[in-house]
Amino acid sequence: MAVLVVGGAGYIGSHAARALRRSGYEVILYDNLSTGYQRLAQGFELVIGDIADEAKLRPALARADAVMHFAAHAYVGESVQNPRKYFRNNVEAALSLLNDTLDAGIRRFVFSSTCAVYGVPGKIPITEETPREPVNPYGASKLFFEHALEAYSRAYGLRSARLRYFNAAGADESGEIGELHDPETHLIPLALAAAAPGSAQLQVFGADYPTPDGTCVRDYIHVNDLADAHVRALQHLETGGDSLALNLGTGRGHSVLEVIQAAEAATGCPVRRVMGPRRPGDPPVLVADVAQSQKILGWQATRTLTEIVSSAWVWMQKGSSRSA
Ligand SMILES: NC(=O)c1ccc[n+]([C@@H]2O[C@H](COP(=O)([O-])OP(=O)(O)OC[C@H]3O[C@@H](n4cnc5c(N)ncnc54)[C@H](O)[C@@H]3O)[C@@H](O)[C@H]2O)c1
Asked: Which one is predicted more confidently, 243 or 321?
């Protein structure tokens, strides 16, 4: 069984590709390398192309039995500044991919959604039934695609798993692949970078939230736990399971200060930081209710915050250079 991993030269897609291969799937990567890297695709067949490029995409789809769709623009702040870019790629181009998938006769589709579809939830933990009310164009673009998948499931029998990730973090234990975002906006790599002498200070956005230590609390999930959940989700669809939407997190929250402590423990150096004001639109706490994903997929995230941060540190030390 062959899986087309779209966006497979990116951070999460490259980890999912390895998890699929470990489980016996044939894997083809498809990526335009806009934010992806050849080195994350090493050892795999990589078709370089855009999801909107039908002539490039169709022959790749013709060889696949299922699609995993990771390709998107994913910076919340940029989506507010430049929504056109986000709707063009995450909606318009993504719909083109979806239609080509359907035309190729493929009926299994796994989609990278996000907890950003929930916006600022009224209740924690967040269940799959929490109203989807995104507060930025990035979240809105992902919600649109969820709606498209729901409609295509009803109308055309295209079965999909809409996987709503919380905060993906960490790196493959091999140290060969890991997080490579440019610019990097995620807390764990920024905290680790701020432990290096002479580096820029880590900006902490808000220390007066209604949380135990005043800083924001998030649900950090190791990228390999996330990757394993994708394999389980595909197996669910393969064995005749219905379309579904699932939260992927650990069900445990950690504050910014706890992450900083973990980064200090991993590096043995103080994380230089500056406490700043809150960032507009940042909810105090985002933590997943993971009961459904545990029940339906028989899956549970196993790696702790310490393991997440130490794997990210190994990856950074191995020289996660920005080059291809
Ligand atoms: N990183 C997180 O914590 C997080 C959380 C929630 C959801 N997500 C979602 O997970 C997915 C993967 O995120 P990531 O952190 O690995 O990002 P990433 O930027 O590392 O990976 C995205 C990949 O998609 C490719 N791509 C983008 N647009 C494309 C196009 N039009 N055609 C072909 N390829 C294209 C990029 O080159 C890149 O390799 C995204 O859809 C993102 O919205 C990520």
From this structure: 243
34 lines ligand 1 (CB under 6 A): yes
Pocket probe mutation, ligand 1, options 11, 53, 75, max atoms within 8 Å of Cβ: 11
CA of 101 to the centre of ligand 1 (A): 18
Closest by CA to 203, choosing from 185, 223, 217, is 185
User: 158-184: per-residue pLDDT in tens?
Assistant: 999 999 999 999 999 999 999 999 999
Q: Is residue 23 in a domain?
A: yes
Q: What is the widest separation between alpha-carbon atoms in the chain? A: 57
What is 120-143 written as a DSSP string?
A: S-SSSSBPTTS----SSHHHHHHH
User: How many structural domains does the chain have?
Assistant: 2
* Distance in Å, CA 7 to ligand 1 centroid: 6
**What's the whole-model pTM score?**
0.97
Percent composition of the chain: helix, strand, coil (DSSP 3-state, to 5)? 40, 20, 40
Centre of ligand 1 to C-alpha 69, Å, is: 9
Residue 201 forms part of a structural domain: yes
**Domain range enclosing 205:** 187-218+251-317
- Same structural domain for residues 99 and 198? no
Q: How far is CA 203 from the centre of its chain?
A: 23
Question: How far is it, in rounded angstroms, from Cα 111 to Cα 13?
Answer: 11
Is 229 a domain residue? yes
Q: Return the exposure string of 71-87: e unless at least 16 CB atoms fall within 10 Å of the residue's CB, then b.
A: bbbbbbebbeeeeeebb
Residue 46 Cβ < 6 Å to ligand 1: no
Question: Where does the pLDDT of residue 281 fall: very low under 50, low under 70, confident under 90, or very high at 90 and above?
Answer: confident
Which pLDDT score, from 0 to 100, does residue 167 have? 97
